[in-house]
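User: Can you fold this complex?
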Amino acid sequence: MEPIVIFNQVTFCYPHTERPAIEEISFSINVGEFVALIGPTGAGKSTLCYCFNGVVPRLFNGSMAGMVTVAGLDSYQNDIPILAEHVGLVVQNARTQLFNVTVLQEVAFGCENLGLPRRVIQERIAEALDFVGLTGFEDREPATLSGGQQQRVAIACVLAMNPDVLILDEPTSELDPIGSEQVMEVIARLNKELNKTIFLVTHDMEFVATYATRVLVLNHGRLVEDNSPEIVFSQASLLKEARIRPPQVCEVMSDLREQGYRINQIPITLESTVRALQELRDGI
Amino acid sequence: MESNDVIQCARLSHTYPNGVQALLNIDLTIQRGEYVAFVGQNGSGKTTLVKHFNGLLKPTEGTVIVDGFETKPLKVSALSCRVGYVFQNPDDMLFCSSVAEEIAYGPKMLGQPPEKIQQVVEHVLAELGLEELCEMHPFALSLGDRQRVAVACALSLNPEIFVFDEPTTGQDYFGGESIMHLIDQLHAAGKTVIFITHDMPLVAEHARRVIVMNQGQIALDGPPQEVFQHSVLLRSLSLRSPQVTRLAQNLGLSKRTILSVKEMREWLENEYLPAPQAARGIVH
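Assistant: Here's the predicted assembly.
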């Protein structure tokens, strides 16, 4: 089957800058994958996110080379509203995305712009709010919700438009730890239960280790690694170069391996580390 | 008489004009030279509380005494040379057209003579390693550098107390560490340091005292070793101990709290695991 997303030698340069924000980016994503994009601040992660739905280069002027295809549509040839039916973007700060008086109007907004019939919109709103755990919040004013709830409203807005691919640009960076976990659980369920393709940008490596099946590493605008989280988090020099600190459990296990303990594969989650250490203690 | 209590809140309550009660009966004393982290879920009152420390907000009930002065009758400017406040988003406080002007702004507003101002600017630029950027426009700098300029502005008035609201949000790991290094240095120089964060490993590795806020009240207050022991309680307050702390708890360590990767590795090597040779088992 054709990949749902194809980046082919994509380079983008903002106006009045010499160095491209992203350079010669090539990768493809299959339907149902959960991909995490990691890298230092200024690496070009957000610019890359804006390429999926045509915001780069259509709204952000600049010079672009290469081609992005989403659901078979060339993002340069197709208007943003057409692309919006296939790819949804949730930005870092939900507040900048929410502007309606009630949650209901907010979630309806995208669907209305797609020109869907009233009955379908009502169904979609109910389903989307149920999915993110905010049924009953229809009449609330988005600004009065907690940060985590606002972020889940933003996800519901995108979900209601029923795209194949969801791009989430640091959706938890301003949330408290449990609010973050709840948002991540929703994203994981979108992937598992609805088979949505997920493209997540985050600085939280514990989340990457727990949820992603594939990790892209971006540094200085270039893709420097594309691999499983296990392999990415076992490469100390690559991580250091890209200013990424792996989950604490990876650091502990890498240190132990250097001390001579027999650890073949560095575990990346808390649960797998507990098991590995118990086995090491019991000499299994 | 010089007191060691630099901040004293007595039955402090704050109700916003819209009726939201953000703080409720807070009794709190912070001593000179303390290094305090405020944590808690979004909306728990952290920012409202620390804004009382420099007079940005005044109690609607109770009193706040900073460095011996009750804040209620004071203007914000009167406290600005005692308390340096660094906003979460540096762009909320930067507005001059060069880094040097930005740093000079505070002393200028307090009417200091030009020679003195020049001296202060040079000293602060050197202190933060910003000499090369002094003619740059703040908005041409990276987020990390803008964050350093914001710290420089607070330093220019040489206050005794520093308040940082989420100083590392939006930074990658190394960017965050370099800001925390600056903050550590202020603490080492005898300043009183107060910061707000959602990053629990940061709290565990830097702060000496952790205050957990919940619904406008103080839920826990103690050294990180003590606070992070309460895993279940923390979870109910929407917080999560660092991953290594949870790892140690999952391995059955209950008599003390592991706070860093280094402590974890030492405990594993010295107490939990057999020596590496033995752990290698009978592999050839």
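The interface with chain B takes residues 39-42, 146-148, 173-181, 203, 206, 243-245, 247-249, 251-252, 255-256, 259-262, 270, 273-274, 277-278, 280-281, 283 of chain A (CB under 8 Å). Residues 177-194 of chain A form the longest helix (18 residues).
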